[in-house]
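Hello,

Our lab assistant flagged a job as stuck in the queue for most of the afternoon. It eventually completed. Since we weren't sure the result was trustworthy after the delay, we are filing this so someone can double-check. Below is the sequence as submitted and the structure that was eventually returned. Let us know if re-running is recommended.
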Amino acid sequence: MKQKKTHNQQLTYETATGKIEYTLQSDMMFHYVMQKSKGALTGLVCALKGIAPSEVKDIHVENPIELNNAARETIMDIKLTLNNNEIMNIELQMYHSNYWIFRSILYLCRAFDSIGSGDNYSDLKPTTLYCITDLELVPDADPEFYAKYLLTNQVTHKIYTEKFGINMLQLNHTDLATKEDIDNNLVYWANLFKATTWEEFKALAKDNPTIEEVGTMIFELNYDNQAKELLEGQRRYREQMATEYAAGVIDAKKELQPIIDDLEKKSANLESKNSDLQNENEHLKALLREHGISDK
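-- returned structure --
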């Protein structure tokens, strides 16, 4: 692996400065690093679940990726089993999606369906989809740092089951974190995802050998030509998706704007006519009262 040199000194994680080109917000980077570092994956899982590391007896990534075949990979989420009795799906969602809610439910259902035909339903494992995002994916929802969704009764609000849910860690709302979030290291992990420079990342990783190991892996992939090519290809794909979405919105606005303008004009005319009718009605009532006639 070739790395740049500065002042006759080989560039390393310890000496790297400036912008991190491909951060943990790259789902390929995230997936690769987490499957390679059991310590980091355990730390993230404990933060998301609010449990102590001692409670993690076994953790296994069910869908590891290989960088040599990453160009053909279509699934970038991490599916893992915890202590052999719980399924966790961790999904990065860093680009806009009109259908995220439908997709998240579909992902959750697929992960929950972990038994074969004829197997006992009691063998189904508790399953949670964890979404890490910096976007507002749930329309009209109140801003939250860590939102948790479960099936509930609409009237009594009784929880249908706690073994099937969706949790969302919103990186853009660290200011709304609770004391529990802070104590569980969720804010720390959010800051790791948000770190865009080597200085920021190394300050967070200081005196934490596990996160320093993560930083070294991020550095290596950022300066490995083959890995950079794959990461750049993925980023361009994401950017193209975002551009096409924006272009679609613009085209739709152009096409629908005349209709919107016409409806707004008609609405304004109706409001004006309604106001005139109300004024005439008040005037008529006043005339009736002047002549001693009840307006009722």
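-- support follow-up --
The delay was a queue issue, not a problem with the job. The result is valid. Strands lie at 5-6, 9-10, 59-61, 78-82, 86-93, 127-133, 146-150, 164-170. The two ends are 91 Å apart (CA to CA).
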